[in-house]
UniProtKB/TrEMBL annotation:
GO terms under biological process: rRNA processing
Biased composition (Basic residues): 1-11
SMART domains in the cross-refs: WD40
Location in or out of the cell: Nucleus, Nucleolus
Region spans: Disordered: 1-140
Acidic residues compositional bias, start-end: 42-59, 87-112
A GO cellular component annotation in the UniProt record: Pwp2p-containing subcomplex of 90S preribosome
Organism: Piptocephalis cylindrospora
Gene3D superfamilies, A to Z: YVTN repeat-like/Quinoprotein amine dehydrogenase
Name of the featured protein: WD40-repeat-containing domain protein
Length: 538
């Protein structure tokens, strides 16, 4: 059903030199073993210094997201498969006529997986004094000859010591985009991206206002475009992976590099039209909803797809419209009718409680710092709920509303919880300082800034990782997308332009690394841009 795609290239620091050995001569058997085990190509291709060599990172195209879980799939009525691998709409990127203005992609060589030959390694004798750098493999002073098996074992131990595996998957970083990398610079995503906000704030200077340095890259879904409109885009919280969903009920995963944007896998959910999808904060799970009385969870480590009926404690079924995970990954919040928000446990996938407001629920969001659940109602009041661990209840701890009142459509909270933003049916977006929302009762708050750049109902409102950019967009008309510089509370004046091919924006998302911005269009394309300020430099 689902296949794991993995390409690895490893070059051990103990195998490489400066073109000539310091002393001794490498035998053919040693070169064979190096090539077989670690894919070493030739001494001419090796790097020129030990310091550079020790900083190289094992490069893998993508984590083993999806293993074959056919036996675990939930079947539909009459034995129909729940999802299947879909390759119908794959497009040869070389035939795309509309990609002239995007960056050129470069092919990458694909090495075979490492393997070992017991006959060769068992008989081989390796001298640890034949090269100065092999002395690092010695376990005691004066040690010299070891067997091929022991040589291989120590090489692996040395490599794993320099490059430990991440906690949930074997993960590595691909080559960064040619303009920023200047060749083969590599980066460790786990050390840089401990969290999206801290990574950006600690690595980069403050984003300047006025104009945005942005470039268009190859479409994110150029390898497999949706047969209908692409209505959902979600970046993985850690890896450079983009999930795309559309009206054709197909979910496609792409490895985003700005050049090839290779498709990793595609799944078709057959028993409902996809309405929303989101990754868990840890990135191990993808939640899928389709306006039905059930939802799906896709375990990206095991490939297991699980169908979960949604039944409340009173045995009443409710349609699941969206699932919004809490920052700690403990809860899922789902807006419901009658001013209710259902709270679901991620561990049991069962309903645990509901919170209610005094009007219909319009939108909701979690506070990344406080863990509070914020809900905006049709009466323009924003409610803040806190989980009380002792009583296992949710208590409303704050209420506030705009001083002028409006018809809300969206709610967004910055990752550092210093800013709130709301969108309205008229296209107006308000930006509020969080400190101004504090007060007794239904506290009235005036916006720090009002944006009148859009004229149709705001359907998308979010803070990009780092909280320096507020993204606002509408699905109703063409080209309805703007980016706000939060610190100066001004809209970037140079982008998008009249020639930016946005079409009707169906979804938009910003990646937690490398400044990627994905925009889903009604044409089925997913435009990919890079904000150069966030290019990760080594």
């Amino acid at each position: 059903m689902v296949q794991t795609v993995s390409r690895k290239r490893a070059r051990s620091p103990s195998l490489e030199g400066k073109g000539k050995l310091a002393k001794g001569k490498v035998t053919k058997e040693e070169r064979d073993l190096e090539s077989l085990v670690f894919g070493v190509q030739s001494e001419e291709e090796e790097v020129s210094s030990e310091e550079e060599e020790e900083q190289e990172v094992l490069e893998t195209d993508i984590v083993p997201f999806l293993e074959d879980a056919t036996a675990q799939d939930t079947e539909l009525d009459e034995g129909a498969p729940l999802f299947y691998e879909d390759n119908v709409n794959e497009i040869d990127p070389t035939t795309e006529s509309d990609q002239e203005d995007t960056s050129e992609s470069e092919g990458e060589s694909e090495d075979d997986s490492a393997w070992r030959d017991k006959e060769i390694t068992g008989e081989l004798q390796v001298s640890l004094t034949s090269r100065p750098r092999l002395k690092k493999l010695r376990e005691r002073e004066g040690e010299d000859m070891i067997t091929g098996d022991e040589y291989e074992k120590r090489l692996r131990q040395q490599h794993e010591k320099l490059h430990p595996k991440p906690s949930w998957a074997v993960k590595a970083e691909e080559k960064v985009i040619e303009e920023e990398a200047k060749g083969d610079e590599e980066e460790d995503p786990m050390s840089i991206l401990t969290s999206s906000a801290s990574a950006l704030s600690s690595t980069h200077t403050t984003l300047p206002s006025g104009t945005l340095d942005i470039e268009r890259l190859r479409d994110a879904n150029v390898q497999a475009r949706s047969s209908g409109k692409s209505s959902m885009v979600r970046f993985h919280p850690e890896a450079r992976v983009l999930a795309v969903g559309g009206s054709d009920r197909v979910i496609r995963l792409f490895r985003v590099d700005g050049r090839e944007n290779a498709q990793i896998q595609s799944l078709t959910i057959k028993d409902f039209a996809l309405h929303d999808m989101t990754f868990s904060p840890s990135g191990t799970t993808l939640y899928l909803t389709g306006r039905r009385a059930h939802f799906y969870t896709l375990d990206l480590e095991t490939g297991k797809l699980e169908k979960t009926p949604f039944i409340r404690q009173d045995q009443k079924k409710r349609v699941i419209d969206r699932l919004i995970p809490s920052p700690d990954g403990q809860w899922l919040a789902s807006p419901a009718a009658g001013g209710a928000v259902d709270i679901i446990s991620t561990s049991t996938k069962r309903w645990v409680r509901e919170v209610k407001i005094n009007s219909g629920v319009i939108d909701l969001a979690w506070g990344s710092v406080s863990g509070k659940l914020w809900v905006i109602g049709s009466d323009s009041v924003v409610y803040g709920f806190k989980h009380m661990t002792k009583s296992l209840t949710w208590r409303c701890v704050r209420r506030w509303r705009d001083i002028g009142g409006f018809s809300p459509t969206t709610l967004a909270i910055s990752h550092n919880e210093r800013w709130f933003a709301t969108g309205s049916t008229s296209g107006i977006v308000h930006l509020y300082r969080a400190e101004d929302t504090e007060g007794e009762g239904v506290h009235k708050v005036g916006p720090a800034r009002e944006f009148l750049n859009l004229t149709t109902p705001i359907g998308m409102l979010s803070f990009a990782p780092g909280d320096e950019i507020l993204i606002m967009a509408s699905r109703t008309k063409r080209d309805q997308l703007r980016l706000v510089h939060v610190a100066s509370k001004t809209v970037f004046s140079n982008w998008p332009t009249q020639t930016t091919p946005l079409g009707r924006v169906m979804a938009v998302d910003a990646a937690s690394q490398a400044g990627f911005l994905a925009i889903a269009s009604h044409t089925g394309k997913v435009l990919l841009y890079r904000m150069k300020h966030y290019a990760i430099k080594q």
